[in-house]
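Predict the 3D structure for this chain.
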Amino acid sequence: MIQTQKELKINHMPFKVGQTLAVTGVPNANATDRFSVNIGPNDQDIALHVNPRFQSKTVVCNTREGANWGQEIIGKGLPFQQGVEFTITIAFNCGEFVITLPDSSMIHVPNRLGAYEYIHFFSDGEVRISSLQIK
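Done. Predicted structure below.
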């Protein structure tokens, strides 16, 4: 799957406890701001928000329930480069998501919404997602 639009949305893609999601993409070659990868139960709530930020050179993760964002979890450094393909893997355990970044560093994010399955995936910002794979 090649995505060239600013946003990619997939509804009804079950991602369950015990599974791992691999996301491959390329940040725009001239990306100056950020992009995000999001997983949730619906269009309003986000169980996992992974947000690489080029200006602050960090990765921020969070959860949103309705209009309310949770406490940010901030990774160390920015293992993404403009125009360079990346793969991140997201392991979904009962109590948390474990995100493995392109440099093999990990960020642990609590499953604050508490569900055992999420069906909505979307990305936005300065990125082109080329593949998603659930194992």
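Residues 1-5 have pLDDT under 50 and may be disordered.
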